[in-house]
Design a protein that fits this description.
Shape: elongated
Helix content: 25-40%
Strand order of the largest sheet: 3-6-7-2-8-1-9-10-11
Number of strands: 11
Largest sheet: 9 strands, mixed
Length: 291
């Protein structure tokens, strides 16, 4: 399975708009939303016949057995995260617990143990022969990168017979982005023509290069700042990065998404630009990855 990942380095650039359009144009049968903090690809992908959901457990949290607790206060004294609430019995505040296990070592009666806590919901959606892997991280939970890896592993397990998979990535350059980049065949960067857009683009490209992932760049809403858009093109030329096209600002994009449709399901300037970019991406994949 060849994987095309859509990234940007920052939020709000139009990653999901491009990813959903690519899924529709390619008639992809395997795709995933790797933005587990705020997944939204499902909003434009319609309904599914099967919806499988299971708990994802990660960081261990401390648990106090009320039948064994003697209220000695030692756990409260050593907790640096204010995760222990004194009382009769003492109890743990799960959202504050960092799983350091210090309290388990100081408890004189072994009333405290650790358990893997639920940190998110892992979902697998199916429709005909399409599979869609996604997940939602619970508020205040960590382990985002590991959950993204589970999203990708789940897609590989059920969609390995499909030739191409489209992945909608996370904003930024943190753990979820690193996990998203691992093992993909191409990272398509959606740049925003702004000062921060160019800065964040450079950072996420540096991250992809460290992982030896091929990259290409497009600019969304290029006509909102044509000077900055030109700077991005020049940067790509100097760095030897394929520049695959520009998408104009298109009010129809919002209208399409509000109706639960991808941009390429309507006729507009933006839709035409994305179709051209999709063809350029396929050509690049054929040349470099022999897809």
């Amino acid at each position: 399975m060849h994987q095309i990942l859509i990234l940007s380095g920052k939020g709000g650039t139009g990653k999901t708009t491009v990813a959903s359009a690519f899924i529709k144009l390619s008639e992809a049968k395997a795709y995933a939303d790797c933005d587990t903090d705020a997944p939204n690809l499902h909003l434009v992908m319609g309904s599914y016949e099967q919806d499988q959901k299971r708990d994802y457990r990660g960081l261990p949290k401390a648990v106090i057995d009320p039948d064994l607790c003697i209220n000695c206060n030692k756990c409260y004294e050593v907790c640096r995260f204010d995760a222990i609430k004194p009382g009769n019995p003492y109890r743990i505040i799960p959202i504050a617990c960092e799983g350091c296990n210090y309290c388990t070592h100081v408890c004189p009666v072994e009333a405290i143990h650790s358990e893997e806590a639920k940190v998110g919901d892992l979902k697998l959606l199916k429709r005909n022969n399409e599979v869609f892997s996604t997940a939602t991280l619970l508020m205040g939970s960590g382990n985002t990168g590991k959950l993204v890896s589970e999203v990708k592993n789940q897609l590989k397990e059920v969609g390995s017979e499909h030739e191409v998979a489209i992945l909608d990535g996370s904003p930024g350059i943190g753990c979820p982005v690193i996990a998203s980049l691992s093992g993909v065949d191409l990272a398509l960067m959606v740049a925003e023509p702004s000062l921060s857009g160019l800065s964040d683009l450079k950072r996420v490209i540096a991250s992809a290069r460290q992982l030896q992932v091929p990259v290409a760049v497009i600019v969304n809403k290029y006509d909102t700042n044509e000077r900055k858009s030109a700077e991005i093109e020049v940067y790509c030329y100097k760095e030897g990065i394929p520049f695959l096209g520009k998408i104009p600002y298109d009010k129809m994009a919002t209208a399409a998404i509000n109706r639960g449709k991808t941009l390429v399901e309507i006729e507009s300037l933006g839709a035409g630009a994305i179709r051209t970019i999709y063809e350029n991406t396929l050509q690049l994949m054929k040349e470099r990855i022999h897809i």
